[in-house]
Amino acid sequence: MLYIVIPVFNRQQFTRACLLSLRQQTRADFRVVVVDDGSTDGTPRMLAEEFPEVDVVTGDGNLFWTAGVNVGIRRALVLGATRIMTMNNDVLALPDFVAQMLRWADRHPRAILGALELDAASGQPVYGGERLDWRTNTRQDLLTALPPTEHHGLHAVTYLPGRGLLIPLEVIEEIGLFDEKRLPHYLADFDYTSVARRHGFPVFCNYDARLSTYPDESGQEQTRRKHSLRGYFQHLFGIRGGGNLRNFTHFTIKNCPRPFLPYFLLNGYARRLVGYFLH
Question: Residue 213 has what pLDDT?
Fold first, then answer.
């Protein structure tokens, strides 16, 4: 049984829309676990009244993304999950999303699968996975690298985000849960899928499974928009900072091949220090 784990904190309107999109799936053989980490905007009441079929786990407001996901995964495993999918609440699953994920998961039972992401406003693809060259710290964007005729099926990638990330039980049994101690919010998903790939599990972006997303609503995009000293500090050191130097260091040391480690670290630090002001 597939269990979809969604960590939430406020943003009730996104959670409602996400859960409604899951109700409209062409396949219904899945369950949903929402980890509500102390929402104060009416989310608990909304979940209880409008979505009684959802299993809700309550946090104390200090879980952040990674610990929230881990709490939800533990709950799903107790309930008998054989497949886990992590999902953010600010996505909309197209009606055949679950069907397309399970179709490919049945063909590749050891693979971790991500989804093609569309801009909710325009419907245009915005993320289709990437391949990282550790030697140069450069990324190949598959959306632009692949001709449109190949925008279907599975494509191997270096890592995947946690928005619509399908994880077989075998992966969890071998490498455990997400690294909530060292990567409490950002990069935990990229780290997890990188570690899984190094343990021999294929990592694919599934272009047949589509999610609508809101690119401008991510925490790191909102931090970058401020362009202030406070925003710069949050970008580099805040727990929700997309350029968090500590998180980047942990991710790199865990995953970068040793011969390329010094250059990758120095190049990554430089990009984070100046990149905030280039967006």
Answer: 96
Amino acid identity at 28: A
Q: Are 95 and 141 in contact (CB under 8 A)?
A: no
Count of CB atoms within 10 A of residue 11's CB? 17
For domain 2-217, say whether CATH 3.40.50.300 is its number: no
Tell whether pTM > 0.90. Answer: yes
Residues of the chain short of pLDDT 70, as ranges, are 218-227, 277-279
Fill in the amino acid letter for 54: V
Domain residue limits, the chain: 2-217, 221-278
For tokens 């406003």, the residue is 121
- Rounded CA-CA distance 148/192 in Å is 29
